[in-house]
């Protein structure tokens, strides 16, 4: 029986592939042997050991802070401190809880996020998808980078200067004589949005840049203009990045102290201003967990260090929870285009 046409050709092709795989395995094995023979230099070993030591030191510090706050906080936290307002007293047992600072933390975070999120998304979309005029785009990028590195106390003083002006009286605490103090939840929330803004911009831009180019091209091929593509294709695809940046911004607001002390007054209790319900709270002064911890810590002027440890524990739980949310959102975003 004669062999089928093309059978010898197919056999030779398979033989060549088999020999090529064997040669590749031999070369890999040889390279591994060479790698084992070539030992690292002393400088490389020192660099690797330094990197390991630095990483372990950083993890140890973070672990130590977490364990210390958890140990102290669990000792002093109870239901009473969570549902009662703080009071001024020389006896720690009579200083109440930190309900008002918790409410103030929530209000300030919501206000700052409501301002920073839409503004940051709009800036990120313009920089990523338009970027014209180029000079203005570079100026805006520089401004965002400055906000990242600017000291929060400097930003707070700038906000105080703005909100002390007479035309800001509807948004600030004012005396009976008409003097504007520049302190309120409105003022602190507006300035807090500047602290959160770079994180929203960065997260949104990264998510938009991760969307493949062919997705945009497919939308244009279907007759959609750029605005429709951004609204219906890109922004939905960038949801995870937007959520990540927004959550990081919220964590920055929760942990901020200087802006609270300068623009919110850091009073023990929330002090409404005016007669309009709800609006009087935002025009009034108050405090957050960070300012409460500072005032009642051994370094502050308060007289409730045990309550400060409990409040610090609650604050740590909030920040850790926000960071866990960021990690979960980031993993989902990586899987989308992976």
What's the structural blueprint in terms of helices and strands?
Blueprint: H1 7-37, H2 42-76, H3 79-83, H4 99-130, H5 134-149, H6 152-163, H7 185-210, H8 213-221, H9 226-237, H10 239-254, H11 258-264, H12 279-283, H13 289-296, H14 305-336
Helix pairs in contact: 2-14, 4-7, 4-10, 4-13, 5-7, 6-7, 6-11, 7-10, 7-11, 8-9, 10-14, 13-14
Fold and architecture overview:
By secondary structure, the chain is an all-alpha fold. The chain has one domain (77-336): MetI-like (MetI-like fold). The chain has 14 helices and no strands. It has helices at residues 7-37, 42-76, 79-83, 99-130, 134-149, 152-163, 185-210, 213-221, 226-237, 239-254, 258-264, 279-283, 289-296, 305-336. Helix 4 packs across helix 13. The longest helix has 35 residues, at 42-76. It starts with 6 loop residues before the first helix and ends with a helix. The model is unreliable at 33-37 (pLDDT under 50).
Question: How would you describe the shape?
Answer: globular
Tally the helices: what do you get? 14
CA gyration radius, whole angstroms: 29 Å
The total count of strands amounts to 0
Low-confidence blocks of residues? 33-37
């Amino acid at each position: 029986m004669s062999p089928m046409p093309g059978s010898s050709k197919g056999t030779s092709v398979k033989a060549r592939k088999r020999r090529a795989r064997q040669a590749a395995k031999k070369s890999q094995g040889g390279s591994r042997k060479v790698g084992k023979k070539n030992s690292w230099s002393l400088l490389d070993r020192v660099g690797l050991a330094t990197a390991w030591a630095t990483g372990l030191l950083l993890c140890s510090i973070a672990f130590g802070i977490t364990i210390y706050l958890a140990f102290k906080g669990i000792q002093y936290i109870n239901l009473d401190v969570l549902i009662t307002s703080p009071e001024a007293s020389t006896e720690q047992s009579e200083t109440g809880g930190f309900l008002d600072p918790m409410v103030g933390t929530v209000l300030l975070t919501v206000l700052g996020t409501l301002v920073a999120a839409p503004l940051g998304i709009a800036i990120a979309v313009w920089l990523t998808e338009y970027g014209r005029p180029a000079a203005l785009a570079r100026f805006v990028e520089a401004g965002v980078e400055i906000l990242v590195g600017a000291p929060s106390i400097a930003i707070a003083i700038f906000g105080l200067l703005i909100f002390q002006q007479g035309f800001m009286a509807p948004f600030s605490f004012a005396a009976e004589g008409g003097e504007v103090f520049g302190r309120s939840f409105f003022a602190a929330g507006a300035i807090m949005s500047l602290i959160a803004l770079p994180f929203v911009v960065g997260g949104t831009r990264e998510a938009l840049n991760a969307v493949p180019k062919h997705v945009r091209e497919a939308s244009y091929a279907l007759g959609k203009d750029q605005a429709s593509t951004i609204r219906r294709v890109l922004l939905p695809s960038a949801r995870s990045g937007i959520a990540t940046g927004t959550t990081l911004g919220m964590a920055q607001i929760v942990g901020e102290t200087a802006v609270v002390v300068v623009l919110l007054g850091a009073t023990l209790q929330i002090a409404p201003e005016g007669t309009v319900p709800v609006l009087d709270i935002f025009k009034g002064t108050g405090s957050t967990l960070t300012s409460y911890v500072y005032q009642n810590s051994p370094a502050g002027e308060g007289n409730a260090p045990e309550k400060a440890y409990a409040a610090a524990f609650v604050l740590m739980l909030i920040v850790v929870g926000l960071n866990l949310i960021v990690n979960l959102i980031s993993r989902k975003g990586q899987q989308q285009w992976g």
